[in-house]
Design goal:
Elements (H helix, E strand, L loop, with lengths): L2 E5 L2 E4 L4 E8 L4 E10 L6 E7 L4 E3 L7 E6 L4 E6 L8 E10 L3 E5 L3 E6 L1
Parallel strand pairs: 2-11
Antiparallel strand pairs: 1-3, 3-8, 4-5, 4-9, 5-6, 7-8, 9-10, 9-11
Length: about 120
């Protein structure tokens, strides 16, 4: 059973910083990608940032230059450093893992709220 446990959300003023963590546990052969998505009220879930197995990084245009995704392979943990936060970054942030075991599939964390006040 694969589990993703997120931490690090909260309330911050515009211009501030937060760091999200997501720890992966369970049985799997390989991690194809890990990343962060977010969903604001009334909007669709969108990709924020992802790190692929080969180390390539993907970022949404809206966060480029402000957010940094990184991983600790020894801990199976991915981080999202969010700087210069804006009110429009307010959303529930979900960790995602693309895992290969018996089959390849996506797993999701429970979500963590990030609120940026103006």
């Amino acid at each position: 059973q694969v589990q993703l446990v997120e931490s690090g959300g909260g309330l911050v003023q515009a211009g501030g910083s937060l760091r999200l963590s997501c720890a992966l546990s369970g049985n799997f052969f390989s991690i194809n990608a890990m990343g962060w998505y977010r969903q604001a009220p009334g909007k669709q879930r969108e990709l924020v940032a992802a790190i692929l197995r080969d180390g390539r990084l993907n970022y949404a245009d809206s966060v480029k230059g402000r957010f940094t995704i990184s991983r600790d392979n020894a801990k199976n943990t991915v981080y999202l450093q969010m700087n210069r936060l804006k009110p429009e970054d307010t959303a529930v942030y979900y960790c995602n893992a693309d895992i290969s075991y018996v089959v390849r599939r996506d797993y999701w964390g429970q979500g963590t709220q990030v609120t940026v006040s103006s």
